[in-house]
Amino acid sequence: MNKVFLKKNPMDISDYIASEIRDYQEFRADTEENPIDDPALIVDYLTLIVYYLVKCRPRSDHDIDSICKLMGASYFEEGRRTPFWAIISEVSTTYSNDPVFADGADLENEITNEDIDQCFRFIEYEVLFIDDEEERDSHLGMISVCKVKYNHSAQPPRLSKDRLNIGKGRDLINRRQFEKFLEAMTPESIKAYLDRFVVGQDETKKILSTAVYNHYLRLANPDAKLIKTNILMVGPTGSGKTEMIRRISNLVNVPVVVTDFSGIVATPWKGRNKEEALTTLYERAGRDIEMAQSGIVFCDEFDKIVPSKRYSRGGDINDELQGQLLGMLEGTELDVPVGGSSVIRMDTTNILFVCAGAFEGLDKIVEKDIGRSGIGFGSDIKKTEPFQLTRENLDQKHLIKYGMKPELAGRLHAVGVLNKLTREQLKCILTESEDNVIKRYENEFREEEDVKLTFTDEALDVIIEKVLSMDIGARGLNSVIHDILKVPLFEVPSDRDIREVTVTGAAARGEDKPEYSY
Questions:
Q1: Which of 145, 215, 313, 462 has its CA 20 to 30 A from that of 221?
Q2: Given 417, 450, 478, which residue is the final one in a domain?
Q3: Which of 365, 397, 417 is the last residue of a domain?
Q4: First and final CA of the chain: distance in angstroms?
Q5: Is 34 part of a structural domain of the chain?
Q6: How far apart are CA 149 and CA 305, in angstroms?
Q7: Does pTM surpass 0.85?
Q8: Per-residue DSSP letters for 298-328?
């Protein structure tokens, strides 16, 4: 399709597009649906787009991506003039003697969203024959974005691979992306990446890194029938569960979503339902169903759907919800809402699920089971060292005793246990980990006001003590520091002479405000 920009005359542009569409129609002649309902209308529409780019835009915009952007900007939205037709209206005034623009403005009342959908199918067909994989991949990515950038309520059209026999183009392109990830990464390199941001929790980082790597192996080798490994992460608030998956989302090239499962219920009309995670995954994938079906879902607060008897909201309700999750985690087709009354069928077979929660009280179940409850003779000796939950002493039977259905526990193949952060680990997170909280505030003062921010050693110790007393792990760091800095964050922008802000121990304790240097 890029060759159309070699044609400068509007008639030549129109003839070229008409020829390509005829080939496309013949190629799709064996399908039940009509690929393009009104070819003449589509020829005029695409001719207008290409002619506008040739006539009014620099040579750098003479490409398929620019065509797709203008097509996306053509989608009709009730009550508003869409960007492309506003452009054409203005251009037709500037070039009042040009019949292409004069006649083209009338197309606004003839082109429908379905026509634009059909144009995207045609462009996608053209792109799939590009030999260069990187160029093809780039164009397909732009198509995916443009199909939904303006037409948010519509499901983007896709070529049906079972009808369009072109070597399963999209599938092969996606698979090549997965292979590139495997060429660049190993479980060790994934963990090394996590080490830059997450302090401690080495065993869980290894489990997560291996699961992500194996996820890509399955995606790149769909015929090998490799084992799917869903993960359960057990650990207190602020121990690094969410931070790990957040960093993984920055590393991988498949969509990743984080969903709070604390409000998920078995009956959708009474609250949020489990399919919400898949809806978000679909949107995160640019409404590309194949990429969505290759994504990663992080189910946070997962313990809230399997509460222990001590915190039970009603066993029958929880049993029903857990039963509904079995197929989703193992692999099944579900109806997923995508806006209004629209639904799509999504296969969860290749989606990696990472479930996480604090599971308060689980350690007591494990401690009692292994005989360390401290009851009877010798109890004083047994309690000299606090019990610590580990991957070695946690078993599936303990999850079942906690309230998890055996079938659900069996779908969570790898379990990682995160421990409460120590004083030393919190200080390392605060000062040494990449992109730490202090560094962010330092950047904020430096970038906005060119002011240096300094914390004394005493101030750091006070901050750590405050966070430890909150008992929410690393999550408390930001709130504590922001509270300490709230005065300079307000005052410093008004005083351009301040060169440095120093947080002392007294300031950290709230006895004084941070010191200013000029």
A1: 145
A2: 417
A3: 417
A4: 62
A5: yes
A6: 35
A7: no
A8: EEETGGGGS--GGG-S-HHHHHHHHHHHHHH
Residue whose entry in the numeric block shows the structure tokens 């000062």: 431
Those residues whose C-beta lies under 8 Å from the C-beta of residue 78, and which sit 6 or more positions away, are none
Together in a domain, 145 and 243:
no
How many domains are there within the chain? 3
- Report d(CA 219, CA 351) in Å as an integer: 10
**173 domain residue, yes or no:** no
Let me know: does 215 contact 414? Beta carbons within 8 Å.
Answer: no
The H or E element that residue 150 is part of is none
Q: How far apart are CA 320 and CA 496, in angstroms?
A: 61
Residue with the two structure tokens 């045609």: 122
Within 8 A by CB and 6+ apart from 483, the residues are: 510
The CA-based dihedral angle spanning residues 158, 160, 161, 167, taken in that order and rounded to the nearest 10 degrees: -70
Do 37 and 56 have their domain in common? yes
Question: 258: which strand partners?
Answer: 298
Amino acid at 50: V
Query: Considering the domain boundaries, does residue 55 fall inside one?
Result: yes
Domain at 321, CATH number: 3.40.50.300
Q: Are 257 and 281 in contact (CB under 8 A)?
A: yes
Q: Which domain holds residue 461?
A: 423-517
Instruction: Mark whether 210 and 244 lie in a shared domain.
Output: yes
Coil/strand/helix, residue 96: coil
Tokens of 490: 């307000």
Do 155 and 232 belong to one domain?
A: no
The answer to whether residues 341 and 299 belong to one domain is yes
Residues linked to residue 452 through DSSP beta bridges, in sequence order:
500
Looking at the structure, do residues 184 and 162 belong to the same domain, yes or no? no
- Per residue of the chain (518 residues), give pLDDT as tens: 778 888 878 898 998 999 989 888 887 776 545 688 889 999 999 999 999 998 888 888 899 989 998 998 888 866 566 788 888 887 887 787 888 888 887 888 888 888 898 898 899 888 887 877 778 878 887 887 777 655 443 333 333 333 333 334 456 667 777 888 888 888 888 888 888 888 888 889 899 999 999 998 888 888 877 888 899 999 888 888 888 888 888 888 888 888 887 766 555 544 467 778 888 888 888 888 888 898 999 988 888 877 544 444 444 456 677 877 888 888 888 888 877 677 888 889 889 999 988 888 888 888 888 875 444 444 444 555 677 888 888 888 888 888 888 888 888 888 888 888 788 888 888 887 777 788 888 887 877 677 888 899 888 888 888 888 887 777 778 888 888 888 888 888 888 888 888 989 888 888 888 888 88
Residue 182 lies in a domain: yes
**Alpha-carbon separation of residue 512 from 53, 121, 261, 480 (angstroms):** 62, 65, 42, 15
Residues 45, 18 within the same domain: yes
Helix (H, G, I), strand (E, B) or coil at 204: helix
